[in-house]
Amino acid sequence: PEAGTGQRDGSLGDLFIPSGAPGTGRCRRAGHGWTDLGSDPLWPLLSSLSRPRHPQDNFGYDLPAVEAAMKKHEAIEADVSSYEERIQGVAELALALEAEGYYDVRRISAQKGSILRQWGLLTELVGARRARLEQSLALQTIFQEMVYMIDWMEEMQAPLLSREVGKHLLEVEDLLQKHTLLEADVAAQSERVQALNQAALKFCELEGRCGPGPGPNDSRCPDLTPEPSAAPGAG
Q1: I want to staple 140 with a disulfide (CB 3.0 to 4.6 A). Which of 63, 90, 103, 235 is the partner?
Q2: What is the SS3 assignment for 204?
Q3: Per-residue pLDDT for 30 more than 50?
Q4: Is the Cβ–Cβ distance between 114 and 22 less than 8 Å?
Q5: What domains sit in the chain, N to C, each tagged with a CATH number?
Q6: CB count, 10 Å around CB of 136?
Q7: Distance (Å, whole) CA 55 – CA 156
Q8: Rounded-to-integer distance, Cα 52 and Cα 176, Å
Q9: pLDDT above 50 for 210
Q10: pLDDT at 129 over 80
Q11: pTM check: above 0.85
């Protein structure tokens, strides 16, 4: 029985730390496989993710930067996910040791509880960080669309501010036709502008400013709703 439990202790270490990884030999020592599980790279990751960063998460100040942060987070998720089967194996082997009356069962049970609690915390932190990243990604997508719309409106101002009225009938008719097209273009963008404005306001209401964590300056998050003085036909 002692030999069997010693081999099982070694299996616990093998499950948690890949063969050849630093600390593998320590984890294979009978009765000490659980103590050295803390040397696994999973726990520094837990420590890193558990540092209080919200709402100062630095995911970037533009869409490409946030997209890059999301890709890095997906790599973290993949790393964490790769441990799930080994965590389950550790828990199952601990239960087996408890059932067999292993001489150090109290320490094994305590370590199992600690590992499962930390695993639960780690997965919770990863999920919470993804939620904040998704929110930041949505904000930057909206912000980029707003910048596009502002650029478009600035381009539209040039023909609308033109004082050219035509010198003869054909020229006037041509200008009227062009203006009709401009009106149709503006009308087509109206719903888009309103939707962007409402989406941006939701972020401002949630955070008291434009978005979670580092984001665009407030001066670059304008209300896209035209002022009454800018309405067509205003004197």
Answers
A1: 63
A2: helix
A3: no
A4: no
A5: 2-137 (1.20.58.60), 138-230 (1.20.58)
A6: 25
A7: 38
A8: 60
A9: no
A10: yes
A11: no
